[in-house]
Amino acid sequence: MAVLEFDDELSRVVEAFNTSAGAVARRAAILQALAGKPGERILDVGSGPGHQVFELSAVVGRDGHVAGVDLAESAVAIARRRCADLGNVTFHVGEATKLPFDDGSLDRVMSSQVFEYLDDVPGAITEMLRVLKPGGRVLIHDTDWGALLWHSSDPDRMKKVMRAWDAHLTDPHLPQSLGTKLVSAGFTDIAVEPFVQLETDYDPASASGILMEFIEGYVQTEGISAEAAEAWSADLKVLGLSSDYFFSSNEYIFTGAKP
Hints:
The chain is an alpha/beta fold. The chain has nine helices and eight strands. It has helices at 8-18, 21-34, 51-60, 73-82, 121-131, 155-165, 175-185, 207-218, 226-241; strands at residues 41-45, 65-70, 89-93, 106-112, 132-143, 149-150, 188-199, 247-257. Strands 1, 2, 3, 4, 5, 6, 7 and 8 form an eight-stranded mixed beta sheet that branches. Helix 1 runs antiparallel to helix 8, helix 5 packs across helix 7 (175-185) and helix 8 (207-218) runs antiparallel to helix 9. The relative contact order is 0.16.
């Protein structure tokens, strides 16, 4: 498996993706489901370049605090620059299984599109439970990549490319077992709601357009030839020109409470 490194190229892709209409709508859905309040202490696990933390800072206000934790030092550096003018925000380099916070010190803990990459999901969920106050809320958002639909004129090639893409994930189907894992860790009142990214026009600046660019490069590290990868993306772009473009990604937002 080719491990994703948060280098300059990945940083560029993430920055572009996070400004797409789909990513903006996703963050809005997460904000609504998290239901943060003024004065609260909130943590984003795997905060990346800090877009969600930036938006949460306005929710908690001057009397609250939002922290971000990410394993990639380069991502934390970008996030700190993005939120440099915010007095209620901090970022930390750290692991999801070793959060740098005291027991029962946070009101809400969230994570978006991170747990599907973790080797120890139960350990990370247990850490979330530890740092939350009694009655505190958890939110985990992830994608089931088996529920992704992407119309192609060559279905067999699409299957091969998506199978190679799955190699960058520890669990491409995490949402199917995430509810059980949250209950096993001790969370209660588990709820889940879907978030669907649907695009029927090709736009290089859209979520699927940016994802397409990234997948084309990544799968070449997983046995797909450059010729086949380029043909895959070229086919999708042609379908976009002929109004036959269809992309749908099924994502899920889980919430729960610490007793």
